[in-house]
Amino acid sequence: MTLRRLGLPALCLSLTLGGTTAIATPPAEHLPLGPADLTETRDTRILQPGVTLTTIVRGRSDSSAGWTVEISIPSSSPDPDAPAAALSDRVGADKAAAKLSAAGLEPRVEDVPTPKLADAGGNSLGYRVRVGLFATKAEADALRTKVIAAGLNGSTLYTGWDGEPDDVTGSTGPWHVQVLTIDPKTFRGTLDATYGSDLEQRETTSTLATLTGATAAINAGFFVLDPKAGAPGDPAGAGVYDGRLVSEPTNGRPALVLGPRGTSVERFTWRGTVGKNLPLDGLNRVPGLIRNCGGTADDLPTAKPMHDTTCTDPDELIAFDASYGVSTPSGPGAEVIVDRRGVVTAIRTTRGGAIPEGGRTVQATGNLVAPLLAAAKVGKPLPIRSALLDDHGRPVPLTRRTTIVNGGPELVRDGRIYATAAADGMVQATPSFYYGWVHKRNPRTIAGVDDHGRTVLITADGRTVNSLGLSISEAAAVAKSFHLREAINLDGGGSTTMVADGKVLNTPSDAAGERPVGDALVITK
Q1: What does the alpha-carbon distance between residue 382 and residue 319 come to, in Å, rounded to a whole number?
Q2: What is the pLDDT of residues 420-472, one digit of tens each?
Q3: How far, in Å, CA of 385 to CA of 277, rounded?
Q4: Residue 488's beta-bridge partner residues?
Q5: What 3-state DSSP class applies to 87?
Q6: Are the C-beta atoms of 388 and 447 separated by less than 8 Å?
Q7: pTM higher than 0.90, yes or no?
Q8: pLDDT beneath 70, residues of the chain
Q9: What CA–CA distance (Å, rounded) separates 218 from 492?
Q10: I want to staple 278 with a disulfide (CB 3.0 to 4.6 A). Which of 239, 274, 412, 438 is the partner?
Q11: Backbone angles phi, psi at 435, to 5 degrees
Q12: 490 has which bridge partners?
């Protein structure tokens, strides 16, 4: 069937049913990206009863965008070890620009306005310094060698990835977006999350889809990537699988909840104890390393969420179960082994070893070694308790049908755009982190629930000239355009992946291809 232009002159939509293309009613609006008159095509097909996949292509290559060199501006701090940054105040930017000019280059100093979010933005982030604007990356790379010769450094990037408001950039795209919609009225399968065989290993989203026999899957929560930050693959925030809490939340940050009452976005804290009253610091992670922070009051540098930062605490109690892996982390401290009855069977004077089938272990470091050893006696019970708490401090009931994966920031609340970058740890001491993570366009993975109770899972490709990606402000606007009443940003960047019928549908941005991740959301029949 020939594709027919529908209501909005810039929007084309097709629906594929068993190989036949049929015309479907378009949504009320196009994606809120770029000028309203950009061409947008949508192709929708049914993957299984109650599950549809929509592929959206919007916009065209922007003739005003090109490749440039963005300067790493030396710090104006008196600290000689202070790192260079993408943004600076006007004085620092002008100083870097003057150095480039003296070398015969033609820099430009640009103010960087950023869109207003619920608790951040709406102002100027600072000033950046750029040199050159070229049609190809190779030309910009050649100019970068001259920047280095001038005594500065920088990175080659595409200006279409800038996150300034459209009335500043005038960006025309393009954007490639994939959308899975699960309608509970007709869906008889299962929407769940999986971390694979254990938490401490990473698998690609396509591998996790194959292992579970999934019709479709997307990557899910943030996770430890660097071994210096913990065990690679370990969730960096809340993790509940089949109703079991196996990773403590980053206190106060949002998480995606899939359960008997549908899909929602909630904020959690937790509590855990060993013995009578020894407080647990965490679950199934390397003691002393708290990825994304948001732990206890004695963690450094903060107990508040701080994204992509690893807080530390030399004195911790961490409980493990078989979900972690074959063996617990090794190192100085002590470890108590508890069988499936809750009885202590052994005490290790250093950390690391097998986890008993159906049992648990508790590791202690620093000044908590002595209290743990005092509480644990071989042959005696040692209760290990943990509970997820809602934002009012009340225990959250978990059933085998409860799944929770971490994320952040929140994007939509009560049907309104509500992006919480500050509350969720993306506003940090220097603006350059916010600039790169929140303000700029990146690949994004989004999840939420619409006003009909349908779960909606979205991936947006980025970091290429063929698909620019989304800023957090744009991600929230895209979520709102699908009438989501609640939405959350999941792990993105090189992790962003969507799989259907055994194939990766999007273009993951890592040079190596699809990235192994911590967990994935999977749709099975």
Answers
A1: 12
A2: 999 999 999 999 999 999 999 999 999 999 999 999 999 999 999 999 999 99
A3: 10
A4: 410, 447
A5: coil
A6: no
A7: yes
A8: 1-28, 77-82, 166-169
A9: 11
A10: 274
A11: -55, -45
A12: none
